[in-house]
Amino acid sequence: MKILAIESSCDETAAAVVDYKSKKFTVLSSVVSSQIEIHKPYGGVVPELAARNHIVNIMPVISQAVKRSGLSIKKVDRIAVTAGPGLVTSLIVGLQTAKSLAYAFGKPLIGVNHLLGHVYSPLVLNQKIDLPAVSLIVSGGHTELIFLKTLNNLKKIGQTVDDAAGEAFDKVAALLNLGYPGGPIISQLAQKGDSKAYNFPQPMINSADFNFSFAGLKTAVLYTVKKIEKIDQKIKQNIAASFQQAAVDVLVNKTIKAAQKYQAKTITLGGGVAANKLLRESLAKQAELNGFKFFTPPINLCTDNAVMIGAAAAFAKPSNWQKIKADPNLEIK
């Protein structure tokens, strides 16, 4: 089954052709057009600019993906597109393009939950993922724990009650005048810093549920920064390391506890923050120590991409394309 997948939920315009056959994935092509340089001066994604650039980029990106796959749109079996969550104007660009292609070429269309794309992204590794599993999804807009009883039986068991982890990384980077996007910069600085230099809080780490909170941690960094008259490079490194360690400790601790409670066999990690080296290594280590298998996709499939949308579409049924709507608040129930 060959799937043309389209992703435009935020500021990346992406398309991919994925083949799913005999329970194995083959990525025939993947193209991502980033808007980081466009939004960098504003310190974050500007929805109107994102949508305008999606309009400019989407057909060239799709054309490149189809050409690199060695196929034509006529040869694909279905088209998949992100239906939500995300920026509604960005979602509409991708969705309307996908609908037009589905209509023009007579192809079945699947509307995909962007978060399910992150959940299914480790499957493209084609390694045996024993179920049940707990999936930690960490990005700029979401921080969620998903329980997979089977690949078609999922439920959300935890989420952030305020800021997403990736949002906290970006805001701390802004406090330190590090630039945008903040996650990679914080991670790089932290490697040279002392993670014990500042005793930042680990919100909700001992709560009975599997929810997260990062607003208090971000505020603690703010108060610390305000107290320091002159912030040199070493102080920035120490703040970055201490903040990152506090955030990662919460994410890892909650995920392990959830896996234990739900008697999972496997833990998976996805989302843009899954590219963070400390998080990947810490969760992998704790998973192994506690007897769980661990999988996370390569870094290029952690950030927004269309390969993961194609992976999720392989386990979904096509629906009436006229009824698929852009939903900026689409959730995993």
Describe the structure.
By secondary structure, this protein is of the alpha/beta class. The protein folds into 2 domains: 2-120 and 304-323, Nucleotidyltransferase, domain 5; 127-301, ATPase, nucleotide binding domain (Nucleotidyltransferase, domain 5, 2-Layer Sandwich), CATH 3.30.420. Helices cover 40% and strands 20% of the residues. Helix 5 (165-175) packs across helix 6 (182-190). The longest helix is centred in the C-terminal third of the chain and has 29 residues, at 233-261. The radius of gyration is 20 Å and the shape is globular. The model has no long low-confidence stretch (mean pLDDT 95).
Write the layout of secondary structure elements.
Blueprint lengths: L1 E6 L5 E9 L2 E10 L2 H4 L7 H23 L8 E7 L3 H18 L3 E5 H7 L12 E6 L4 E8 L2 E7 L5 H11 L6 H9 L24 H13 L5 H29 L4 E5 L6 H13 L3 E3 L11 H7 L20
Parallel strand pairs: 1-4, 4-5, 6-9, 9-10
Antiparallel strand pairs: 1-2, 2-3, 6-7, 7-8
Keywords:
2 domains; five-stranded mixed β-sheet; 333 residues; Nucleotidyltransferase, domain 5; alpha/beta
Question: What's a quick, concise take on this entry?
Answer:
This protein is an alpha/beta fold and 333 residues long.
Q: State mean pLDDT (0 to 100 scale).
A: 95
Number of domains: 2
* Overall morphology: globular
Strand adjacency order, main sheet: 3-2-1-4-5
Provide the CATH topology of the largest domain. Nucleotidyltransferase, domain 5
Order of helices and strands: EEEHHEHEHEEEHHHHEHEH
Runs with pLDDT <50, length 5+? Answer: none
Q: How large is the count of helical segments?
A: 10
Mind telling me the CATH class of the largest domain? Alpha Beta
* CATH architecture name of the largest domain: 2-Layer Sandwich
The biggest beta sheet is recorded as: 5 strands, mixed
Structural class: alpha/beta
CATH superfamily of the largest domain: ATPase, nucleotide binding domain
State Rg: 20 Å
Number of strands: 10
Helix content: 40-55%
Report the end-to-end length measured between terminal Cα atoms. 27 Å
Strand content: 15-25%
